[in-house]
């Protein structure tokens, strides 16, 4: 299944991976630049209207300690504006593969789980905080299950 990724602009400068992302039409933004974020959401909205899935990491960055951080609103605004269902995906076990602020790759056994679709039909922008927390709670609960099973 083809999809577009939303990532920070610097990722697209990484040899090979970043170049392929750029050529495939993945979306980038300048972290901390609100106008860049708004422009990126417009591009993502265009992809969604063309029935293309967009992968967004709602925390906006990886954490140093492996714990899930608060979510930013962009993905939820986008889903509600376009009335697009959300498909939460959780990944566990990648922390040692590429640590934050370290370029060296390590060994990792990762597990990915695709969760239940969360509909946004009928929601308004007033529902962004509740949707954001609902998705985050579902993801945290699933990661807790994955940790217990590991």
Automatic annotation (TrEMBL):
Chain segments annotated as coiled-coil in the UniProt record: none
GO terms classed as biological process: phosphatidic acid biosynthetic process
Pfam families: Acyltransferase (PF01553)
InterPro entries, sorted: Plipid/glycerol_acylTrfase
Domain annotation Phospholipid/glycerol acyltransferase: ranges: 2-94
One annotated GO molecular function: 1-acylglycerol-3-phosphate O-acyltransferase activity
Keywords, sorted A to Z: Acyltransferase, Transferase
GO cellular component, one term: endoplasmic reticulum
This protein's name: Unannotated protein
Organism of origin: freshwater metagenome
């Amino acid at each position: 299944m083809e999809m577009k990724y939303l990532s920070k602009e610097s990722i697209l400068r990484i040899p090979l991976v970043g170049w392929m992302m750029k050529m495939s039409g993945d979306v980038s933004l300048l972290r901390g630049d609100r106008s860049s974020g708004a422009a990126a959401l417009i591009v993502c909205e265009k992809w969604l209207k063309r029935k293309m899935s967009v992968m967004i990491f709602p925390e906006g960055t990886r954490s140093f300690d492996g714990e899930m951080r608060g979510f930013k609103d962009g993905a939820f605004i986008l889903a509600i504006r376009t009335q697009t269902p959300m498909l939460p995906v959780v990944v566990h076990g990648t922390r040692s593969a590429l640590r934050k602020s370290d370029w060296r790759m390590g060994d990792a056994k990762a597990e990915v789980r695709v969760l239940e679709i969360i509909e946004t039909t009928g929601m308004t922008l007033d529902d962004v905080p509740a949707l954001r927390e609902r998705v985050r709670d579902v993801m945290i609960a699933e990661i807790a299950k994955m940790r217990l099973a590991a």
